Prior knowledge:
- Belongs to the EIF-2B alpha/beta/delta subunits family. MtnA subfamily.
- One of its GO terms (molecular function) is S-methyl-5-thioribose-1-phosphate isomerase activity.
- It contains twelve helices and 18 strands.
- The chain is α/β, with parallel strands linked by helices.
- It has a seven-stranded mixed beta sheet, sandwiched between helices. Strands 13-10-11-16 form a four-stranded mixed beta sheet, covered by helices on one side.
- Helix 7 links the parallel strand 7 and strand 8.
Amino acid sequence: MKINGTPTRTIWPAADGQAVEIIDQTRLPHEFVTVRLETLADAAHAIKAMLVRGAPLIGATAAYGMALAAKANPSDLALTVSYNVLHSTRPTAINLKWALDEMIKALGGIPESDRVAVAWQRAAEIADEDVAINSAIGDNGAKLIKAAWDQAKARGATQVNVLTHCNAGWLATVDWGTALAPVYKAFDAGIPVHVWVDETRPRNQGASLTARELNWHGVPHTVIADNTGGHLMQHGMVDLCIVGTDRTTRLGDVCNKIGTYLKALAAKDNNVPFYVALPSPTIDWTVADGVKEIPIEERDVTEQTHMTGKNADGAIVTVQVTPDGSPAGNWGFDVTPARLVTGLITERGVCPASPEGLATLFPEHA
């Protein structure tokens, strides 16, 4: 994607070949800051503190984290320790484990003297593969937006309205995004698409990140409170929902940012199609029941009790929004059962959220 006309990824090797650089997403939307990651500890901190976030980008960062670790010490023991350090940073997104397993697979059977070069090469491949996968997701999902636009146009509408939750755009991946890739492809093809952007409390990834990148790209959008989506659906103001996912089970349950389940319930009640866009590394073929088996991350409650923004003087400030002494809870994700999902948008096509549907696209895992 482009920032002020410059093609930009969310993670890239530094010019000196000794580090990687990222966009610090905790500073968006008001400040654009890049950070240099030089060590395993830097990569682990970037993931845990959410300088990078979104399942595909977490995976790519973990891959580069293993490359940085190999640069410091390519031994079997050091790689095992590095794997465990990175794996412990975020428990819900399966792409993290997938990327780490890919790195171990690439490095495990070769001499230590070759591991640094191979680690950098495999990490770069994982990043490039993510871009290609998400571009294909965009192509497949754009067909759904086009079909929704044709129906809306026949009713006399002047635009097609997509509702999304959290941030599943290019900031959540290496490039293109998952849920927003279809939006970008449709918009670039001339379809008049408008996006309802859930603010996505408590970290406000919709208001701060989705709105930021849609603004950069020129896509019409409106930021709304998290609880507005049902009202919009009741009044025919949403043509389809597209969200991302951090882990999808082999039966089609999807785990995404907290609040996704409520959007799916509202969509079901109002006959609004509810799609989930996902790269295949997000599918956890070892898990069947998402509600029972997927670990749900519980994060620092200050994300709930405090908010950061820009004041009238242009200064970035953090304020407390809850009373002193009031406890808070902060579950990061919820699970939407497959029965509420209209379809899964993958790089191989669109399928029902079911074991049979997934088997048609990924027979090697059936």
